[in-house]
Predict the 3D structure of the following.
Amino acid sequence: MERRDRKLDQAAHAAWLYYIASNTQEEIAAKLNVSRQAAQRLVALAVSEKLIKFRLDHPLSECIALAEALRDKFELKLCEVVPSDAGNGEAVSGIGVCAATHLEYYLASKTPNILAFSSGRSLRAMVDQISPMHQPQHKIVSIIGNMSQYGRAGRHEVVMRLADRIGSQVYLVPTPVVATSAEERDLLQTQRSFVTVKTLAEQAKITFVGVGQVIWNGPLHQNGFINDEEVTQLMELGAVGEIGGWAYDQYGTVLSKSTNLRVASFPLEQPTQRLMVAVAGTEQKVDAILGALRGRIINGLITDESVAKAILK
């Protein structure tokens, strides 16, 4: 039933693009990451399931319109919006289901792919939706360390969990998220293993990233990657969000001070030249997501309805 619901969601999206937004089948295929033949079948499925009448008779109609508005406003290569279910915390799971559909497109390929990931709760929700499979040809690569300066592990590691599910090769960043000093960071990044993983990440077909707020008890702080003094300092410098440990302000400008001088994760491109898709939602993250969009740190977004509406306002 869950797979059928996902297929109907995708059919509804294809139908909206075809009948309302007047996209060609080639354009639909590109936007949904499917073949032209698959796009044609999705539109046909929407008709056969009676999703199409005089209007789109599907609960995702408004979400699809929001996604297209975000895509146009920020020139995104990929954008999906899922319904919000205020008050019960289901947004993360809905975002995870939607993101899993896109991830499965790459995992199903017989051609070897390199797929890169940061970490976070929404990415974990995405990976949890992936059914076990045997795809040893793929390389799953991390773009961020997953421990503090003192060896404490983060709670929302992604790449090992995914590699276990699909039987693929996995590559980890052999550093903490934030080093104790710039000198230590520079030394850690000379390791052959670090250079190897960085090279793979730069070749990734797609990179999925989480977006964290820079607030008290935000992801970096809660996981022990930065301390009380450091999170306070970042907030005073105007930081609103972080991706891969790199803090940025409301305009998406990556800070040149504080913990950013010691981040041992791979640097962010600005504007990004690769497909960098943020998987993040809930209204608490609106400023962080908007900053990433403004700074063109990301060129793809999978989020929820409440975030989409807030950003478009």
Notes: The domain at 61-312 is CATH 3.40.50.1360 (Rossmann fold).
